[in-house]
Amino acid sequence: MRVIQEMHQFEDGLRPAQPSVAHDWDGETWVPDAAKAALLEQQETERLCTRVDAAADNARAVLAGDPLKAAEYAQAASEAQAFKDAGYPKKAVPLAVSAWVVKGRTAKVAADEILAKAAEAGSQLLAIRTLRLQAKERIRAQAGKGKQDAAKDTCEAAIQAIGKVVSG
Q1: pLDDT grade, residue 83 (50/70/90)?
Q2: Which of 4, 17, 96, 156 holds its CA 20 to 30 A away from the CA of 57?
Q3: Could you tell me the pLDDT band of residue 13, with boundaries at 50, 70 and 90?
Q4: How far is 11 from 157, CA to CA, in rounded Å?
């Protein structure tokens, strides 16, 4: 005995439900269309890569803030580095460094803290970039081998890893 779970009425009669959008009706049965399947897999691969890119973009926005703030911090780091390279001259403290001279900090300590924060931010941004690029490469490699589930797992793991960079 054969049980039909789902049938659809068409002008040429009843036919079973389409197994996937990568199948075409040949008049008698649904047949897989390799070109459609390949296109769908490629689209899914790019969707996964786009999700990783979006997670990285969000993480960078959290870390760097708005572009003007990031430019301000980059300028402070540049001035702090020049101040350090000059031997921390007490009579030539850059404005970006002197703004950090509060709560008992010396200009030298302020410059070193600015540089440490800049190095930490740079490391976080590099970690995000590395995670993003490696994940996209692995996603594409796995999808190329027909391992879409592994590609999805790689996407999810990369998004979690990027989130961990931001959270600490």
Answers
A1: very high
A2: 96
A3: low
A4: 47
pLDDT score recorded for residue 15: 72
Tokens of residue 32, six digits: 């897989």
d(CA 44, CA 39): 9
The model scores a pTM over 0.85: no
- The CA–CA distances, whole Å, from 2 to 10, 18, 19, 31, 112 equal 21, 18, 18, 21, 77
What is the DSSP code (8-state) at residue 23?
E
Domain range summary for the chain, segments of one domain joined by +: 1-32, 34-167
Instruction: Provide the 3-class DSSP secondary structure of residue 2.
Output: coil
> Which positions ≥6 away from 159 have C-beta within 8 Å?
51, 52, 55
